[in-house]
TrEMBL record, chains A, B:
UniProt GO molecular function: glutathione binding; glutathione transferase activity
GST N-terminal domain segment(s): 1-81
Matching PANTHER family: GLUTATHIONE S-TRANSFERASE RHO (PTHR43900), GLUTATHIONE TRANSFERASE (PTHR43900:SF65)
Reaction catalyzed: RX + glutathione = an S-substituted glutathione + a halide anion + H(+)
Keyword Cytoplasm included in the entry's annotation: no
Keywords, comma-separated and alphabetical: Transferase
Organism: Helianthus annuus (Common sunflower)
UniProt enzyme class: transferase
Any single Gene Ontology cellular-component annotation: cytoplasm
Family stated for the protein in its record: Belongs to the GST superfamily. Phi family.
EC number(s) stated in the UniProt entry for this protein: 2.5.1.18
Domain GST C-terminal positions: 88-212
Name of the protein this chain belongs to: glutathione transferase
Coiled coil: none
Length: 212, 212
């Protein structure tokens, strides 16, 4: 059975691709063009009622929300490929904690930067300098916490690469690339070393190759 | 060992209390007053570097982010109290999916309503009617998806009460109470029946009693 992943060209689906590559799970991709509104067709809304990416189909099992999908495969294939959850329930708790931090502290200001700098004027977004400045200020505070954390452990949840680190990769590659704010990573010694490490993993290079 | 829960009087920590009651786990609470800034003291920031609630301490294990904490206890005490994860990994995938929907689709507009209607002018929030109207419009769309989903299964992840339902309770009790928008729930037949069901669970009544 090959896992079908909808919408590979955007950052959230790339979380899923990264996970599938790390777990050595075969998959195929189904392009969904957000700018053409392919995520709002009745067929797509049957799969994902909010019109968001990604969705996976695995036989007759359908699942959406990237962080739910990566948790599912990390658990289902725990002993295959890279272990992304840690050895104990306590490790897994910390993986989930930092995955929530990514979702609630790191992602929202970064998404604003991506939308207002990279995607305006698509999706009706008018570039707003105040939103950009406020989002950068918020992200600086989050990165300062990361710098402290990563001075004490090699990865966010401990001394092992996990879903928490993986989940940061696709949008952070926008930050250091087309968003043009690489200095936010580079001026923090431990964040910079962490980013160099996780963004040079073969899984990410493979995902970039698939999506180019 | 008794679990120590910081910050019980607010909605996010109540997710944790609800889970601990459902799982029949003993706990004690440590009040943290956000309005007095007790979440920004050096000691508190050692526990939770972003100054958010809740945090738990369980022996020498510290964990923050309410949805990470409830996942940890639901898994650690899988066979004690109410099973909040479902029987299979596929059930658990759907629980996580709807928990992510709660976090990313349902919670942000509801939090805006709570902040601008209930908490202004605390925390420097100036009541903004445009934010209130836009947030209500977004929440209506989410509730329409819930109405469809709950017409097909009794609870969000299937025919069993789970973390996904539980996570909605504390903030939705603000929506139908002090926010003054009970009609958003009541005018949707299946959402209304679901809310009556989950909000009358003994666990929630006990949490309200603890926090009154």
């Amino acid at each position: 059975m090959v896992v079908k992943v909808y919408g590979p060209a955007y950052a959230s689906p790339k979380r899923v691709l990264l996970c599938l590559v790390e777990k050595e799970i075969d998959f195929e991709t189904v392009p969904v063009d957000l700018i053409a509104g392919e995520n709002l067709t009745p067929d797509y809304l049957q799969l994902q009622p909010f019109g968001s990416l990604p969705v996976i189909q695995d036989g007759d099992y359908t699942l959406f929300e990237s962080r739910a999908i990566i948790r599912y495969y990390a658990e289902k294939y725990k002993t295959q490929g890279t272990d992304l959850l840690g050895k104990t329930l306590e490790d897994q708790g910390l993986v989930n904690q930092w995955l929530e931090v990514e979702a609630h502290n790191y992602h929202p200001p970064l998404l604003n930067l991506v939308l207002h700098i990279m995607f305006s004027p698509h999706f009706g977004i008018v570039r707003n300098e105040q939103v950009i400045n406020e989002s950068e200020e918020k992200l600086v505070k989050v990165l300062d916490v990361y710098e402290d954390r990563l001075s004490k452990s090699k990865y966010l949840a401990g001394d092992f690469f996990s879903l928490a680190d993986l989940s940061h990769i696709p949008f952070t590659s926008y930050l250091v690339g087309p968003v043009g704010k690489e200095y936010m990573i580079k001026e923090r010694k431990h964040v910079s070393a962490w980013w160099d490490d996780i963004s040079s993993r073969p899984s990410w290079l493979k995902v970039l190759e698939i999506c180019k």
